Amino acid sequence: MNRLVYLIFCVLSASQIYAQKDSLQLGDNYAEDQIYASISYAQFFKQPLGVSKSGFSYSISTGFMKDVILNQKGSFSFAVGVGYGFDFFNHNIEVREINDETIFATAVGTSSNTFKSHNLEFPFELRWRTSNAIKYDFWRIYAGVKFLYNMSHKFGFIEDNKSFSYKNLSAFSKLQYGLTLSAGYDVFNINIFYGLTPIFDSAEPAMDTSVLKFGLIFYIL
């Protein structure tokens, strides 16, 4: 039911935006309000010494951006948004929660070691594009910062045929942020997220592990 409501909302929002676009003429003041969706390859970086890179991991997200133009031509703007993101990591750190203390070790002898995370996203962007009020296919460069608020997460692994899982660790940083860059033409654009904050704010031993994502982002006017 929730998925159906969300789909109806997206369709109605897109229809309203298109209707507004159809009434514009060249030289008119306009904004690029957009629904976005992204899929990215993800990695943990700044890992502890001796820990190898993550296995195949991915991130998906979707949301809505509100565009505020900064010049009459519409080539420069500022945008704010809200959305949802899901992260899935295959990684090489053994994570446990013991007596409300998060303990880390290098994963040895585990057949599966994953991390899943559900986040609210709050992107802020400065935008440059070659569009105008009646031109919908254009080049763009969007740069900014994205804040993430973690709603829930789970670390899990299998060791000696036994499953272990730990949800919402005490050391996990619920508020994170990073730099973003999107560039491309028309619907298809490359997208990068470079995390500036560690995903753990207190742990034994101390860790500075952050998130790096790169992939594709799609904008729907």
- In total, how many domains does the architecture comprise? 1
Strand content: over 45%
Q: Walk across the major sheet and give the strand order.
A: 1-2-3-6-7-9-10-11
Structural classification? mainly beta
Shape: elongated
Kindly identify the CATH topology: Lipocalin
Low-confidence stretches: 1-28
Order of helices and strands: HEEEEEEEEEEE
Task: Describe the protein's architecture and organization.
This protein has 221 residues and is mainly beta. It has one helix spanning 2-22; strands spanning 34-45, 58-69, 76-90, 93-98, 101-106, 110-129, 139-159, 162-167, 175-185, 188-195, 210-220. The chain has a single domain (2-220), classed as Lipocalin. It has one helix and eleven strands; from the N terminus they run αβββββββββββ. The protein has an eight-stranded antiparallel β-barrel with strand order 1-2-3-6-7-9-10-11. The model is unreliable at 1-28 (pLDDT under 50).
Write the layout of secondary structure elements.
Elements: H1 2-22, E1 34-45, E2 58-69, E3 76-90, E4 93-98, E5 101-106, E6 110-129, E7 139-159, E8 162-167, E9 175-185, E10 188-195, E11 210-220
Antiparallel strand pairs: 1-2, 1-11, 2-3, 3-6, 4-5, 6-7, 7-8, 7-9, 9-10, 10-11
